Amino acid sequence: MTYELVIGLEIHAQLLTDTKAFCRCPNRYGEPPNTLTCPTCLGMPGALPVLNRNVVEQSALLALALNATIHPHSKFDRKNYFYPDLPKGYQISQFDEPFSSGGWQDVEGEWGMKRIRITRAHIEEDAGKSLHQDDGSTVVDMNRCGVPLVEIVTEPDFRSESEAAAFITAVRELLRYIRVCDGNMERGSLRCDVNISVRPLGQTALNERTEIKNLNSIRAVERGILCERERQIRIYESGGQVIRETLLWDEATEEIRPMRRKEGADDYRYFPEPDLVELTVSPEEIERYRDGLPELPNVRRKRYREQLHLHEEAVAVLSGDREQGDYFEALLRLGVDARTAAGWMQGEVRRALTSENRDMADFPLAPSALAELIQAVERSTISISVAKDVFRKMLTDGRSARAIIEAENLSQVSDESELRLIVERVLAENPDELAKYKSGKRNLMSFFMGQAMKATRGRANPNRLAELLQELLDTP
Amino acid sequence: MPVTKEDIRRTAHLARLHLSEAELDSMTETLSRVFDDIDQLHEVDTEGVQPLHHVLDLRNVLEEDIPRPCFTREEALGNAPDRTEEFFRLPRVVN
Description:
The structure holds two protein chains of two kinds. Chain A is of the alpha+beta class. Chain A has four domains: 3-286, no CATH class; 295-358; 364-412, no CATH class; 416-473, Orthogonal Bundle (Arc Repressor Mutant, subunit A), CATH 1.10.10.410. Chain A is 39% helix and 21% strand. Chain A is built from 15 helices and 17 strands. Chain A has a nine-stranded mixed sheet. In chain A, strands 6-5-16 form a three-stranded antiparallel sheet, with no helix packed on it. Chain A starts with a strand and ends with a helix. By secondary structure, chain B is mostly helical. In chain B, helix 1 (5-14) crosses helix 2 (21-39). Strand 2 of chain A pairs parallel with strand 1 of chain B, so a sheet runs across the interface.
């Protein structure tokens, strides 16, 4: 029998705020354990949570970027469960009146373009981190406890592991674009739970689903889905029934193992959080947030393809990384031709970043500095090969393109009389080759070009040089 | 609404509270009475009345995103029944 995969995702994104969601302890990764806590995030009796304004702002940007509706009123609820990394005994979350709902995100792949529906995106807090020790004990670090999260829940719209992977990639890109999450799956600032079921192809009703947790890379998501698909199919093929449970992905063995039977939703005993008041967002505020959104990756991608006619590789790089795209845009605003700018971004700029292992944000040249160099090539002041040398010098000593070109006398030699002198000298210095050329070895043309270029240290305008060489060589 | 002993047992388990049989019995009885009292509220006609989520007529109580000093680690771990140098320590929770 042919089976169809049905997948829904829950993505947790840690927001890039300076402080936690409900107290003003710093929100920072990698600090010494248990040094970022206070009575509120440790759940001490009597401590009261106060919502972080920046959490609302970042959640609003994210909701709008996901095409979701921000609700004028939302409230917070307690999700109760007992676990040692949750000192209050409940997680502050949003249950029946979430911050936003009803969005979508398009994902591209071999299936073409597919619209994934987003059920909701709500605000909640992270738990602490349990570390299981070799001696059987468990220790807990509460630094992460109370870090703001947005949970993005999708409809069960995915039919393959690749679609799910493409969605996570797109959301990660979006989060980084609007600078609300660093998207680091390894560190857990972006986490993904997968709800998965299989059904005979053609069946419309959904079968029982399981949930896989601890998938901390996009590859793990794909591997986990395939593993669980096989397991569920084996169960149905042998006449069994899939039961609802939570499974853990084991990265080391690439296996899934049961974590706990899923307690029914009722068992979280959600009820309104009495320590927090209602959150309202006015239409004016929503418009203000909308104005604060940058051009989003999918929009940029479309424009680069359809209006700038960049080739696919350039489209992918320049629309996938906000900083590179913004730099490219700045070059365009300075009057650099789109394809030329894309060529530099993909060529020299990318090489410089890779060799230094830097992000675009740390790139030392201002767009205006690079534009000056590119325009020197376009005006034929210097050749492209000289420009690449100048570029490297600009990176190392910080001088401007003009300063380097002037100081090192790199301007292209286009002057007819100067070039003629050089060509005449080259011909005079190589009488043997000249004789061979005259007797018919026409491919020696490139030899003379090379010699003349060498004599000018690469500064000869190649077109003018070729014309002159041809003229003088063919003089009887 | 009658509360059964099973309800109490299950709820206690979710909160990891260990109640003896005698405690379960007395809790069942006490909570049943509480629920009976609350049930009287059902007699009020709430048709068309918006649910009240909060008794305070306040909205958007927010703080600026500016860090304040935290506990030192010694303060944070000070009440812990068991600890290591850096962490809270507990019995193993996952097999």
